[in-house]
Amino acid sequence: MFVIVGWLICIACVFGVFIIHGGNISVVLKALPFELITIGGATVGAFVANNQMKVIKSTIKGLASCFKGSKYTKARYMELMALLFDLLQKARKEGLMAIEKDVEEPEQSEIFKKYPNVGSDHHVVEFVTDYLRMMVSGNLNAHEIENIMDGAIEAHHVEAHAAVAAIQRIAGGLPAFGIVAAVLGVVNTMGSVGQPPAVLGGMIGSALVGTFLGILLAYAFAEPLAGLLEQKVEEGGKELQCIKTILLASMQGYNPSTAVEFGRQILFSTERPTFAELEAHVKRK
Questions:
Q1: Domain MotA/TolQ/ExbB proton channel, which positions (predicted)?
Q2: Helix or strand or coil: residue 71?
Q3: CB of 71 within 8 A of CB of 233?
C-alpha cells in the first residue's frame, strides 16, 4: 500500500511542478508509450538474460510481497516463541523422544496445529524440525549444531538477496536504457532535418523523454522496491535467528522459559513483545 502511495506522491510532484511551470505535458504523454516500450522491453530482456530461472521466479515473488504488509508482526513472533516453548517444555518433562512424532510429522502434531500462523509456514516448520531432529538424535553438540544453523541461515540470506541484487541491477540499467531511447529519438530527428523548427523541437523533446523516463523509473520505482525487498529479507533472517537462539539455549541446559527469553531479546524493538506480554501469551496458550 505504501509503495503505491509513494509512487503517487513522486508522480504528482514531478509532473505537477512541470505543468505549473508551463510545461507542455502533451509532448511527454505523446512520447510516453513508445519510450516505455523501448525502455521496458530492453530492461525485461536484460533481466531475463542476466538471471537464472530460479532468481527470476524469486524476484517476481519478492516483488509481489512488496505490495503486502509485513507478516513478521509481534503476534507472529509470540506464536513462534509459544510454539517453541511448548515443544521444549514437552521435551523437558517427558524426554526428547517424546517430541519425535511432532518432529517427524509436524502436520499431524497438536502443538503445531495450535499455532497456525507459524505452523503452516513450511520454512519455519522445516527449520525447527530439522534441528529438533538433530537434538533428538543426540549425536551432535550445541557448537556443531550452531555451525550448521549458521550455514543454513547464510544460505537463506544469499538466496533471498539474489532477488534484491537483480532489482538493483535493473535500477542501475534503467538510466542507460533511457539514454539508448533518447539517442534513437535524436537519430530519428536528424533524419527529419528538413522539417520546420517547431516540428524538430517537438521531436527533440520527445527524444529527451527517454532519458527522463529512464532516470525516473530507476530512482523512483526500481530502487525503492529493491530497498523494501531487502528490508523484508532481513526480517525473514531475524525470525530464523530467533529460532536458532532459543534452540541453542535449550541445548545448553537452560529451561524453556529462559531459552524463549533469549530469543525474545534478539528481535527488532518494533516487533519485540515485552516479557509480560510473552509470558501471558504462553500461559494462555
A1: 126-235
A2: coil
A3: no
